[in-house]
Fold each of these.
Amino acid sequence: MHIELRIRTSRQYEMIDLTPRVIEAVAKADLEAELCTIYVPHATAAIVINENDDPNVCVDVLDALGRLVPEGQWRHDRVDGNAAAHIKASILGPSETVPVHNRRPLLGTWQAIMLVELDGPKERRVIITVR
């Protein structure tokens, strides 16, 4: 089963909690699923699992990525000025897979499934596959 979400981001860099939408998608699946994959088909966005209880964690992650991959010094910047976003998205990756049990994703107490926007604001597609 595939569910596609459309997420409108509002800032150049942000992390958006998708966990409630993923939980809903898994619960709606008409099968005893064992896995749920969350995938973003964009080259300047990523999917990660991290804490979302303390909003400073998301800010820290984005700050660390900014220090790790500075803006404006890459060859691709001559094309459209977003090379750092491509590099950051490559480091983080476009998907996460979570085990499912009793129609619920098996996440840890503090874990959340996050869309990481690295080149916004934009409308992003997120594909949730339950199998």
Note: Residues 18 and 103 are 17 Å apart (CA to CA).
Amino acid sequence: LKKKMKILIVCATPWELKTVKTQIKSLNLKIKLQIDYLCTGMGNYAMILALTKYLTQHAQEEFFLVNIWVCGYYTSSIPPKLLQIWRIKNLATSKELLPPLPFLFGEVASIYSSEIPKTRWDIDWEGFVDMESWGFELVADHFRFPRLLLKVPCDKVGEETLNFDRTLALSKLAQGINYQDLIQKILSRAEKSYH
């Protein structure tokens, strides 16, 4: 008999996690969900350590991992409300990871993963940047769990990063994702993997 798959929502900061958790708890879902929440701290190293520790401590469980939080951007046009990450380039090593796309949920995009907050865009072309995607994908791939990386572009790298507006970021995180649809798609995907 197969174990029921749990959803693990992973965020970097407590305020991001609280926002996501509040949105999910406010849904009028007809079924009882098995959702765990993990706050890892900022940066790839914190992500790798916290996620590895959590998954090792819960080794008997099956998870669908969902990485949700805000990211920086540097584009000449208005960024999309929501990104689904399919390619991650580590700015420190230039190595790339290609997360799977279990289903389409946001505008598919690549992201740069930086070890420090980017306050200056010194990359040759436009794009998106965060500090945790690389670590998340590295660990998720090692444990072979299905996963989804969702990013809400929030601050334009430069002045907006230096004067980060947490209230605006949380508002975009709350409103930029259709959480009802997200949970339904994850459950549908989890069902398929067990039949």
Note: Helices lie at 14-25, 44-57, 133-143, 159-162, 166-175, 179-193.
Amino acid sequence: MISFTSFASGSSGNLYTVSDGQTDVMLDCGLPWKKVRERMGFHTSDIGGVLLTHQHMDHCKGAGDAAKAGLDIYASKETFEALQIPEHRKNVIEEGQVFSVGPWRVLPFVTVHDVEGALGFYMVNLDGEAMLYLTDSAYAPKRFANLGVIAV
């Protein structure tokens, strides 16, 4: 069963996780790393990867330090161009190109925002359960079916 947890939401920072009971994935990392660790009860080593939607600091402020702590970061080329992420932790993703984070299959899609490379994520776990993560978008540019969790 999918569980979605909000640790911070708003213009001061966004930080969420999604879990299938096996692998946790961080969705955005918009707080300083120290606060990320505090809010998550210092369980950041359990994170399989960090998905960034876009380059605004309220969504990616802690991403550089997350990478330094050993987490792989997944984002568009345009988002990475705006950030300082260690090269060996960068995973450039593209619209429509499915990739995996642990057992999660992730489909990134373009969102309607004021920066280039902004993405939303459609995610499916091994049990076929699906979720949608869509932030800071004027509207949903695509339709998705059979969603168990919708985070907008």
Note: The chain has a mean pLDDT of 94.
